[in-house]
Amino acid sequence: MQPVWLTTSDGARLFGRFYQGGSKPFCLCLHGLTRNSRDFEDFAPLLAERGHPVLALDMRGRGESEYARDPAHYSLDTYHRDCLGWLDQFQIRRAVWIGSSMGGGISMMAGALTPERVSGLILNDIAPEVDPEGVANIRKIAGKGQPIRTWADAAQRCRDVNAHVHPLETSDAFWRAFARRTHRQMGPESFRSDYDPAVLASISGEISTEKRWKAFDLLQKIPTLLVRGAQSELVTREILERMLTRKPNLDWVEVPDTGHTPLLTESVASDAIINWFVRTKFSP
User: pTM above the 0.85 mark?
Assistant: First the structure.
């Protein structure tokens, strides 16, 4: 993994992790609302080993990237422009955009507005419409909790919040690794989630559901794979059926015993993604 940096047109300093691959389609990995590029530290090497160069990003306000000077910049429009800036810096015309939750929303926006920059889409448990009850449940826990004073506290916090998402993961090692991906140590007994709390305001829908569906309808010619957690709080089976009705050529896979969002390293998910890459013909 090679750490890389981008200074945007408005002066923001952003961080990414580049995994050198071969000549296969370039992949851009985008995380969810409160996560960061470390979400892909196990998944990205799987693609790189198979010849795909991979760039996993810390969006503004997350991980090593600079916090936004104006919280209004925590928007899909801004994230989309930042991603295009990254592709320009790497001199990449088209990429496969792989987005988890919010990252999938950015990816769908890219496919609708700048299809010439998108060779394919992998949407990790996200759809043009999400179950409002699931969003409400996320609101209840996002940014909440007791002070975290040790890495063990952070691991327990991650387990408390996410055990229903990964019910089969019971080892302490898994949750310690989860904590190190999602938290940052600030002092001897001071830890916090690794994002700017101001990003939570963007959990409100900035684009109407109707407009998101219209954008989704523009993806007909873009190869797209949906990875859905079988116990997803956001992408219900009914929403999946609507996606298939609107886009009959949508490929999809369901990851058992998993909620929102899959890790993409589950064997069902990774096998489906690798097979999708093998059989899909991407535009040059």
Answer: yes
